[in-house]
Amino acid sequence: MDWTDAAYLWLDSAAQKGWVVKKSFMDAKPGALIVGLDRSRNDLVGIVREVRDGKISYETLDEAGKVVRHEIAAETPGRDIIFAGYIWPERAGDGKP
What we know:
Layout: H1 7-16, E1 19-22, E2 33-37, E3 43-52, E4 55-61, E5 67-73, E6 82-91
Antiparallel strand pairs: 1-6, 2-3, 2-6, 3-4, 4-5
């Protein structure tokens, strides 16, 4: 994959290369990449760490390279981010990374 492209292009590229891509916010899975835009409309890429009690926790890096943990209620993601999709850590068809 070309990781230098805008983050929203990663979804199509990942799907073309055989990775499982999900576009429903409710399809969160630990280990998946979450892709979208933050409140300032900057690219957002994070790693889903936990899905529990109607909340999705994911981690991003700040400008200094420090890990920042975020938590979003699954029923209202639009208040925090503009969600584009997930790239699951598995290949389409075989379920293996």
